[in-house]
Amino acid sequence: MLSDAARALRETFSAPFRRVMWLSLGLTLLVLVLFGAGLQWALATLPEFGIGWIDTVVAIAARFLAVIVLIPLVHPVVSLVAGLFLEKVAARTEETAYPSDPPGSDQPFWQSLVIALRFTIVLIAVNLLVLPFYLIPVVNIFLFWVVNGYLIGREYFELVALRHLAPADAVARRRRHRTRILAAGILVALFATVPVLNLFAPLFGTILMVHTYKKIANPEGFA
């Protein structure tokens, strides 16, 4: 697993993936800037109390809360934007790392978009549900890794598996290998907690999951 992660990390920043990497990064930053600008506009419309120090405190508190709101949104926004390119990443990984294997079938663009939206909504909803526990020191980071590792492992493995299997077979295979897939997902979640690198977490996760799927599908070939 760790060797696959090291390999995926090298490939994430390698030449075959740079175009997708920079395009995904650019769109992600654009979405975050637009969202931040929208928050600033909303803050500018707040009513004033006409008392200098109260207005100053309210303005500072509002901008602080805006930053607090924006930071947790980085991961879902990155996942949503990158989700539009993950089919290409999976296909390129299979093509470069496993050229002798039968190629997978790309999902239609609109289906990929729906999957990306669904995953983003689930990611936000689940993290909001466990938000109170994120306020507990030490527990919060481990809980983030496990919760998001499960979600990422499940979604990314099925993304890769559906390129080769029928939906029911992809789900069945994921359930049979849930421990290994969870471990891979936790590695991606850990990657997603590192500033700057978190912007590339979906690309890293997809490449890692291709390697994970290949070893699960053909264990004899990696003995």
Essential attributes:
mainly alpha; 0% strand; 223 residues
Q: What do these coordinates show?
A:
The structure is a single chain. The protein is mainly α. The chain has one domain. It contains 9 helices and no strands. It has helices at residues 2-12, 18-44, 52-82, 86-97, 109-129, 139-161, 167-176, 178-191, 201-217. Helix 6 (139-161) packs across helix 8 (178-191). The radius of gyration is 20 Å and the shape is elongated. The relative contact order is 0.14. The model has no long low-confidence stretch (mean pLDDT 78).
Shape: elongated
Instruction: Output mean pLDDT.
Output: 78
The number of distinct structural domains comes to 1
Q: Can you write the helix and strand succession as a string?
A: HHHHHHHHH
Number of helices: 9
Strand content: under 5%
